[in-house]
Amino acid sequence: MPRLPSHSGPRRIVMAAFPDVQILDVTGPLEVFSGCSRWLQRERPRTEPAYTVELVAERSGPFKASSGIGLVADRALQRVRGPIDTLIVPGGIGVERAADKGKLVSWIARTAPRARRVASVCTGTFLLAEAGLLEGRRVTTHWASCDALAARYPGLRVDPDPIY
Q1: Secondary structure letter of residue 4 according to DSSP
Q2: DSSP string, 17-72
């Protein structure tokens, strides 16, 4: 059975989303963490969950994913306080607009140092690159966006065909 490293309290998972986000990029990873937490509580009874998940955005409250389905941000970016175990940045057709507005990108750049790990899903890689977190690193994104990522951020080593 998998063992979690010892730590105090639940591991905090923060998903930083934006209008026109790809809903699967948000719900897929968050469901994995919440499902794991439920499994651990069932298999190894504990008083608190192993993971907590939060959806944050420029403003708290509802916004639309690219599918038209509404999502609700638990809190606004500027209200996110304290340590973060995992910061996840999703992708979607709203990435370019989110990058151009700059608020999410500057928040990611300021917040990433207090997260144990930072990850992106699909074209969320563009936001991490724009925040200056990927320079010199091997990265990937959706296959249809690899050329654009490499052209826009020449300091990245874009792998268009990873197996993961």
Answers
A1: P
A2: --TT--HHHHHHHHHHHHHHHHHHHHHS--SS-SEEEEEEESSSEEEE-TTS-EEE
Q: Which residues are catalytic?
A: 122
pLDDT of residue 42: 85
Convert the pLDDT of each residue in 96-116 to its tens digit.
Answer: 999 988 899 999 999 999 999
Question: What amino acid is encoded at 104 in this protein?
Answer: L
* Terminal CA-CA length for the chain: 23
Each residue's pLDDT tens digit, 45-86: 777 888 999 999 999 999 999 999 999 999 999 999 999 999
With a CB cutoff of 8 Å and minimum separation 6, the contacts of 87 are: 14, 16, 108, 111, 112, 115, 117, 118, 119
Mean pLDDT for 29-53 is 88
Q: What b/e string do you get for 101-123 counting C-beta neighbours within 10 Å, with b at 16 or more?
A: eeebbebbeebbeebeebebbbb
**Encoding tokens for residue 140?**
């990937």
Region class of 94: left (phi > 0), else alpha (psi between -120 and 50), else beta: alpha
